[in-house]
Write a structure and sequence with these properties.
Layout (H helix, E strand, L loop, with lengths): L11 E6 L8 H15 L3 E6 L11 E5 L23 H11 L5 H13 L8 E5 L4 H8 L4 E4 L4 H10 L4 H10 L3 H10 L2 E4 L2 H11 L6 E3 L21 E5 L9 H14 L4 E5 L8 H7 L6 E5 L3 H10 L2 E4 L8 H8 L4 E4 L4 H5 L7 E3 L4 H13 L1 H18 L2 H18 L4
Helix pairs in contact: 1-16, 2-3, 3-4, 5-6, 9-14
Length: 425
C-alpha cells in the first residue's frame, strides 16, 4: 500500500507512445505530464517511445528508447537512410512502407515494442498504449498482460478530411495510402478491454467510426500545466496580434480556413497579423495561398517553438484562434485559455464541450466557415472589455476542469477498474 494512493497499491506501468514530440502534438504532452503525475502518486512508470522522444522527468520516469529510422524528422522528412542504418528486418519494412506511400510508424513501433517487452512481461502490471493501436498490442494482451488504450480522437476523421480536401485524384489516392494504418487501428481499438478518450464527443465518435463499444470506453479529460501556461502581467498585449497553434498542416486543423478569414479581417482591421506556431508541410499550398491573398507580410510561420516562447506568444496576443474542422479535445485551446488570452474557436468536434459557452468563455464560429470565423475574430479585436471577460472566464474554466492531477487520478482509477474486472486487484 502507498500513502499517496490510499487503499490502492502501487502499479508497475509500461506506457507506450509511438512518437512523443514534446513540442508539437498532444501525444508527447500527454505522455510527459501523465507519466509524471502517475509517478507522483507512487506508481512505477516506464515509457517506451519512438522518435521524437518525449521530454520526461528523469528522476521519476524511465524512458526506454525504441529507435526507428526516424524517417519523418522535422529537418529532413521522408528521408532516405544510409545503408548502414538498416539493422533489422523491421527497419527494412519501415522504409518499404514509406516508399509505398504509407505511414509505417504505428505498425513498426508495435513490432519493436513487442520485441522489447517479450522478456519483461512479469515486470509490469499493465500496458498503457497511447494511440499506437498495433496488432502487437493485442498479442501482448493475449500473453496475459492487461492493456488499456488512450485514443484522443478517431483517426478515421483525419483520413476522411484528408481525402475530401485532396487536390485531384493523385492527392486523394495518396491520402488513402498514407492512412493505410487506420484499418489496423480500428480493428485493434474495437477489441481492447478498456479505452480512455478525452471527451464525450470522442467517445461517441469512437463508437460510430471505430466500433469501440460504449461500455468499454471511459472519458478522462486531459490537463494543462498551469504552472507554465498562465498569464504574465509583465508582457503587454500587442495590438492586432492573433496566434494559433497547429501541430500539423492538415485539413483537420483548419489553417486554410483561417488564412481565408485573415484576408477578411485585414480589410477591416489593418493592424491585424497572424502568427502560426508550426510549419507548413513540404508541398503545402498554404504559403502560396498566403501570397495570393497579399498576406505574406501579415502571416508568419513561427515553426516549432519551445514551451516558454509559446507562453510568451499567448501573453502577447490579443486573440488566440483554434480554427479546426474537428477536434477530439484540443490541448492548444486549453493552453491558450490558461494564459487568459481571449479565444475564438470553431464548433468542430469536441471544441464546444471543452471551451465552454459561446460569448462567455469563447467566441465560437461554424467549422469550415471562413466568413463566420473572420466575424468572430473581428468581434474580439473590437472590444477590450469583451476580451478581458473572455480571458478571465476561460482561465477560471481551465483551473476548475483541466488539470493533470485530475487526469492522473481518473486514469489510475481506470487502471484498477480494469484489473478488478480481471480479478487481478
Amino acid at each position: 500500500m502507498n500513502k499517496r494512493t490510499g487503499d490502492l497499491r502501487p502499479l508497475r506501468i509500461a506506457f507506450c507512445v509511438y512518437r512523443g514530440n514534446p513540442y508539437s502534438g498532444g501525444q508527447g504532452v500527454y505522455t510527459k505530464h501523465l507519466s509524471h503525475e502517475l509517478a507522483k502518486r507512487g506508481h512505477t512508470v516506464e515509457v517506451y517511445s519512438g522518435q521524437p522522444y518525449p521530454d520526461l522527468d528523469p528522476e521519476s520516469v524511465v524512458l526506454n528508447k525504441l529507435a526507428s529510422l526516424d524517417l519523418y524528422r522535422a529537418e529532413d522528412p521522408f528521408r532516405i537512410p544510409k545503408i548502414e542504418e538498416f539493422g533489422s528486418l523491421i527497419d527494412v519494412a519501415e522504409f518499404a512502407l514509406m516508399c509505398s506511400g504509407g505511414f509505417p510508424e504505428p505498425r513498426t513501433f508495435g513490432w519493436r515494442l513487442e520485441r522489447a517487452l517479450e522478456s519483461r512481461l512479469g515486470d509490469f502490471d499493465l500496458i498503457h498504449d497511447n494511440q499506437s493501436l498495433s496488432w502487437s498490442i493485442l498479442r501482448l494482451a493475449q500473453k496475459g498482460l492487461p492493456v488499456i488504450g488512450s485514443i484522443h480522437h478517431p483517426i478515421t476523421v483525419d483520413r476522411a478530411l484528408a481525402i475530401e480536401h485532396g487536390r485531384g485524384l493523385k492527392s486523394k489516392i495518396g491520402a488513402y495510402r498514407w492512412y493505410g494504418f487506420v484499418k489496423m487501428q480500428s480493428e485493434v481499438a474495437s477489441r481492447m478491454e478498456r479505452v480512455l478518450t478525452v471527451s464525450e464527443t470522442s467517445r461517441t465518435d469512437l463508437f460510430k467510426y471505430m466500433n469501440v463499444a460504449l461500455e468499454r470506453s471511459r472519458v478522462v479529460p486531459i490537463g494543462v500545466d498551469t504552472s507554465v501556461f498562465k498569464p504574465n502581467p509583465a508582457i503587454r498585449r500587442e495590438p492586432g496580434l492573433i496566434v494559433t497553434t497547429a501541430s500539423a498542416d492538415v485539413p483537420l486543423k483548419g489553417l486554410q480556413v483561417l488564412v481565408e478569414a485573415m484576408a477578411e479581417v485585414k480589410n477591416v482591421e489593418p493592424k491585424s497579423h497572424l502568427v502560426i506556431i508550426g510549419n507548413p508541410n513540404k508541398g503545402s499550398n498554404l504559403p502560396s495561398r498566403v501570397f495570393e491573398l497579399g498576406l505574406d507580410a501579415y502571416v508568419k510561420f513561427a515553426g516549432v517553438v519551445a514551451q516558454d516562447e509559446m507562453v510568451r506568444l499567448y501573453n502577447r496576443a490579443e486573440v488566440a484562434v483554434v480554427p479546426s474542422l474537428y477536434e477530439g479535445f484540443s490541448l492548444p485551446a486549453v493552453e491558450a485559455m490558461a494564459c487568459g488570452v481571449p479565444l475564438v474557436a470553431t464548433d468542430g468536434g469536441a471544441l464546444p464541450e471543452v471551451t465552454g459557452t459561446d460569448g462567455e468563455t469563447v467566441l465560437m464560429a461554424r467549422a469550415g466557415d471562413y466568413l463566420d470565423l473572420a466575424k468572430k475574430i473581428l468581434q474580439a479585436l473590437d472590444s477590450s472589455i469583451l476580451r478581458d471577460e473572455l480571458g478571465r472566464n476561460a482561465m477560471e474554466r481551465v483551473m476548475s476542469k483541466f488539470t493533470w492531477e485530475a487526469t492522473a487520478r481518473a486514469t489510475e482509477q481506470n487502471y484498477f477498474d480494469l484489473l478488478s474486472a480481471r480479478g487481478e486487484d
